[in-house]
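Project standup — Tuesday

K.O.: blocked on the structure for the chain from last sprint. Re-posting the sequence here as requested.
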Amino acid sequence: MKILVLLAILIPCTFDSAMRSHHYQDQDQDLATIGSFIARQARRERGEEYEEARKVIAGDLNGDGIPETVVLYTIESQGGSNNYIQYLAVFGRRDRHLVRITHTPVGGKSRRSVELGSVTDQRVNLETLSYAPNDASCCPSVKARTSYVLLGQTLREHKPTRRKGRHN
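H.V.: unblocked you, prediction finished:
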């Protein structure tokens, strides 16, 4: 009887531990895939990723019930400049591996600053700060929200909604 009780305790614990270990391996592989994609793009642009600004969330964008991985990332210093461009990328699963579906620029210097919000109703929701006519080049002040939808292998922006007030 003691052996059965011991087995009833140990087998689920071992299985749970193995599943957690497998999950972390998948997560590490996902991060490596994302990092590799961004590094290749940064080399093409002769820039570098501002890694601390990278944000990753998951949510269903195509209605199949399987969450896609959404990444907001920034490439800066293109060709030695002080420029930066923010991109939104979407990755899906193929045979348990993460694969890039698409990416598009969503913000950058002299355009707007973008923060990743959430994925709801098959949309990627973003908070934005755009430039008012008298804003300095460092400091956009017009708050708004926008969203992107995945149409096939393309991200399309929905019309942004402005919020009242200025950013301080």
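K.O.: great, moving the ticket to review. The chain has a mean pLDDT of 85. Strands lie at 48-49, 55-59, 68-76, 84-94, 97-108, 112-120, 123-130, 142-151, 154-166.
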